[in-house]
């Protein structure tokens, strides 16, 4: 049984999928399986996967398209490793990604997941900028620290392609779900895990995150007239504040004051975004 499963959920991305697979197969840490979960693609996806002829690759094809989130959950249930990476089919890991990420788990055995920096690149792989604008401190982060910075900055601080998850967490937090927004189910998972486990931030760039017109983020984050990405993010953070409010860690007066202030700030910002979408509100 492999130590790590790298899963690539994919749909009609045959051309970009090749680069994602290649980035996995050159990892310096080699005890892994590569699981491709094909969401009933109609392009050359299967042929691309089969062309690699690598025994570590396992190909699964859904009989019908089950949606993006359900395909991610399929990756969880089909994976055989102790640890799991869900890599975007349009992203690329750096060769030392697994080595660095697994070290974080070995150094901090209690963490639920590790995550790292990544760079934004254009469709041809040219560097654009660093993903994200504000980050947590480097290293081990307890429950309060990770969620404190998430709430403070009002954003998701974790790019999913940089995450290595200890699969034991799913028995406690369940699978990916959409209680607040369909476009923030990954952010919802990082919050759920961080409510029960410490995490670890690796302060290095270990992945390329590709920006292009066909990605889901184009619809949710790059349409000024319809800011569904930010709305979903704020809804997730309000849920995190609610979950934190009755925990022991927040009996401290200063921590409660921090949460209360951010609750009002985020509620006000969220109201402005909703009025942008629904002027009559």
TrEMBL record:
Superkingdom: Bacteria
Gene3D superfamilies named among the record's database cross-references: Spore Coat Polysaccharide Biosynthesis Protein SpsA, Chain A
Protein name: Glycosyltransferase 2-like domain-containing protein
Any one GO molecular-function label of the UniProt entry: hexosyltransferase activity
SUPFAM superfamilies: Nucleotide-diphospho-sugar transferases (SSF53448)
Pfam families from the UniProt entry: Glycos_transf_2
Domain Glycosyltransferase 2-like, residue spans: 5-156
Organism field: Candidatus Woesebacteria bacterium CG22_combo_CG10-13_8_21_14_all_39_10
């Amino acid at each position: 049984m492999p130590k790590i499963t790298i899963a690539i959920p994919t749909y009609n991305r045959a051309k970009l999928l090749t680069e994602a697979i290649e980035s996995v197969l050159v990892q310096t840490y080699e005890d892994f399986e590569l699981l491709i979960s094909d969401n009933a693609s109609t392009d050359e996806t299967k042929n691309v996967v089969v062309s690699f002829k690598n025994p570590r690759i396992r190909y699964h094809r859904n009989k019908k398209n089950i949606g993006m989130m359900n395909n991610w959950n399929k990756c969880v249930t089909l994976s055989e490793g102790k640890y799991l990476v869900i890599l975007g089919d349009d992203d690329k890991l750096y060769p030392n990604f697994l080595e660095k990420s697994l070290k974080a788990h070995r150094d901090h055995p209690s963490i639920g997941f590790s995550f790292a920096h990544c760079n934004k690149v254009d469709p041809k792989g040219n560097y654009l900028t660093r993903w994200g604008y504000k980050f947590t401190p480097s290293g081990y982060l307890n429950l309060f620290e990770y969620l404190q910075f998430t709430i403070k900055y009002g954003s998701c601080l974790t790019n999913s392609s940089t995450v290595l998850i200890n699969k034991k967490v799913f028995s406690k937090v369940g699978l990916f779900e959409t209680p607040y927004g369909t476009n923030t189910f990954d952010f919802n998972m990082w919050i759920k895990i961080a409510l029960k486990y410490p995490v670890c931030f690796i302060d290095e760039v270990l992945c390329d995150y590709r920006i292009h017109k066909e990605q889901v983020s184009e619809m949710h984050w790059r349409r000024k007239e319809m800011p569904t990405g930010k709305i979903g993010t704020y809804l997730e953070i309000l849920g995190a504040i609610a979950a934190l409010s009755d925990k022991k860690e927040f009996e401290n007066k200063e921590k409660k004051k921090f949460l209360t202030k951010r609750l009002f700030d985020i509620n006000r910002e969220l109201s402005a975004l909703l009025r942008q979408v629904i002027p009559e509100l």
